[in-house]
Amino acid sequence: MASTDKTSTRDRLLDAAMELFYREGVSIGVEALCRAAGVSKRSMYQLYASKDEVLAASLERRAPEYARRLALDPDDTRPPRARILHIFELLEQASTKDDYCGCPFLSAMVELKNPEHPASVVALRVKGALTEAFRVEAERGGARDPQLLARQLTLVFDGASARAGAKAETLDGLTTTTATALLDAAGVA
């Protein structure tokens, strides 16, 4: 029975952490986190050595859904260009939601400003996987420099995500138009 309670406590803690860190930022206090999760600080510290570990675990928990949403399905028969543009269409759709606060992985890295922080390590890996997916598609599409194009696409994705998350920009086709120009310049079919 104790392991079921611990799993339930962990789930509540990580669910609250995912929501609070995304909505409020990584500076949220341990007390506020535990209160939102309905767990004691003692229980949190029995599961995790620090709030930093909770943040890293919450990002790790979010990573599979993020990857699934942005995944370039290997069974997708569309050309690489269409597959890449689809990711930007998904970003534009997500950015229209009232609760959109940008990419949670990018937000964590920007707030933490420490690439060695446990949460930054998770975020860098997740963002690196997106860049690698762009590189693979760019290579498949015949880009002259797939690595450069992948970095450019990631830069557009992250910049658009940050600006839309800060409510400083409405994406309305802006990212797909920008990505299209990059794909054209790189020679991607």
Automatic annotation (TrEMBL):
DNA-binding region of this protein: 29-48
Domain HTH tetR-type, chain residue ranges per copy: 7-66
Keywords from the named record: DNA-binding, Transcription, Transcription regulation
Gene3D superfamilies recorded: Tetracycline Repressor, domain 2
Keyword Transcription: yes
Superkingdom of origin organism: Bacteria
Name this protein carries in UniProt: TetR/AcrR family transcriptional regulator
Organism whose genome encodes this protein: Streptomyces phaeochromogenes
